[in-house]
Amino acid sequence: MRTKQLPTSTPVSAGALVGAVWWAVGSLALPTGLGTVLLAAGLLLAGVLVGAAKRHAPRDEPVAPRTRTEVVRLLGFGALLVAAAVAGLNVSGYGELAVPAAAMVTGGCLVPLAGLLQQRGYLLLGAALMVLGAGGALLALRYAGGLYPGALVGLGAGLLVWCGSAVDARLHREPLSRIGIR
Predict the structure, then answer these.
(1) CA angle 58, 178, 182 (to 5 degrees)
(2) How far apart are CA 75 and CA 69, in angstroms?
């Protein structure tokens, strides 16, 4: 008897969703007109990324149940840590550091995720998010207000995650082959 396999979310779809969330955080930190236009453009880009990834991405190998449990535990811990950091920073009067701190926590969670899923690219993405968050925190402490650090870190994190998802889907190979590289 064959069991029906339920569709699963690909890492590219998950990356597009995470990138869209970060892009929304960044665009909501901007003034209304510009923020709305950037939000719409980012959601369109996320949809295009998912559509292109579904056509070009290799089939995902199933993840072992033990590994899946560890991934869910890591993601839950990361989400709890982000919520606690944002709440704690807002209560203590350092709300402008909330977005950079969330980027650093997200990057910190990607580092062990790279080992769990055997994806070295997540290690680089996690390090880039931590550096972006640290730069955003320095910017927030240097200048009053969280408007530009929140926008810079949110939009930058969205772009980084989307680029990582595009590389996971191997979307970069077709344009490179058209110009004669590989």
Answers:
(1) 65
(2) 10
